[in-house]
């Protein structure tokens, strides 16, 4: 009897928690939608045209409690999870992809890694900056090190009470506007390689003079957020600004990349928002546009296009929700699946929405044109569609596949589970 009562109580508590979570998510969605429609949407075209960073939008996110909402309460945040964050990001991105990206990096990525692995000092520094409206910058990519992140050549040499960093980063989102930087580098001590680690640097602070911003890339889309070079010239970073994951420096890069799974899901949420925004525009347009004496929504070809778009959007949202349906960082496999499917879906749906508008969609006066350009980035940044397929296949097969030519040639033919089982039986 007592066991039955315990089970009933547990089930009731779970139901109450689920209802509370659903209510919280709906509240975030409504508030984010209001901001998107009344504040971010009207500004989106001018941000894109002028290629200016939307500080006003950052402050609007901050004032609404949407900057650093995943930061623990102990450091001034709300202690919310990725489920709440992706709802925010989707709603914001329907109206403005640039602001959606800012919302991602203010709640995931670098700030997530620091809150998970950082010291008390590091967490307080990051929390203060983000809660004030700063969008952190993750500095991984280099001119000759994109998908092959471990080929980075930026060095961090242990010298005295800290590290001296030298190198060049490229395609750094927020270069020149972000203050908080999480910089990845190859660590050396006595000229011996130690592994790849992350270093926390605050641009503009005394001692950070060795960090400078290079040229800005003229991007196809998401033009309101700069993508720049970042130069590190004898940049001194105190030892207490080394982000130390549980596995230490030698194996800690894997921990840091686990934190990056959150960034991938966030990118998927931006792509989802762009697709939904384009879908909404197309659905409204085909109902009011008339050709041949009737609304074009009465033509079956466009009906099928709209139906396919809706199905793809629903599938993408389900993958994203599955990836964030838990505590801690999203699972690598689920994050890769969500990012891959949603990014490719967004490219197709935004282009289909433009097609449904006809010539009107090709005009820069139409928000769908901007959404097409913005969506294109997400099959590239944060893990290309091709690399993510490698990640997924590797996980499915339970095997690691070296990507370098030398590594592949030296790698012994892996045994399948069937071969392994056969060997055990024969023994």
From TrEMBL:
Q: Which cofactor does it need?
A: FAD
InterPro entries named in the record: AcdA, Acyl-CoA_Oxase/DH_mid-dom, Acyl-CoA_Oxase/DH_mid-dom_sf, AcylCo_DH-like_C, AcylCo_DH/oxidase_C, AcylCoA_DH/ox_N, AcylCoA_DH/ox_N_sf, AcylCoA_DH/oxidase_NM_dom_sf
Is Hydrolase one of the keywords UniProt gives this record? Answer: yes
Q: Taking every annotated instance into account, which residue ranges of this chain make up the domain Acyl-CoA oxidase/dehydrogenase middle?
A: 137-234
Instruction: Name the Enzyme Commission number(s) assigned to this protein.
Output: 3.13.1.4
Gene3D superfamilies attached here? Acyl-CoA dehydrogenase/oxidase, N-terminal domain, Butyryl-CoA Dehydrogenase, subunit A, domain 2, Butyryl-CoA Dehydrogenase, subunit A, domain 3
What molecular functions are annotated in GO for this chain?
A: hydrolase activity
Acyl-CoA dehydrogenase/oxidase N-terminal domain residues are: 26-124
Give start and end of each Acyl-CoA dehydrogenase/oxidase C-terminal domain: 251-396
Question: What are the record keywords, sorted?
Answer: FAD, Flavoprotein, Hydrolase, Oxidoreductase
| Domain of life where this protein originates | Bacteria
**Classification via Pfam families:** Acyl-CoA_dh_1 (PF00441), Acyl-CoA_dh_M (PF02770), Acyl-CoA_dh_N (PF02771)
Protein family (similarity comment)? Belongs to the acyl-CoA dehydrogenase family.
The entry's protein name is 3-sulfinopropanoyl-CoA desulfinase
The organism encoding this protein is Kiloniella antarctica
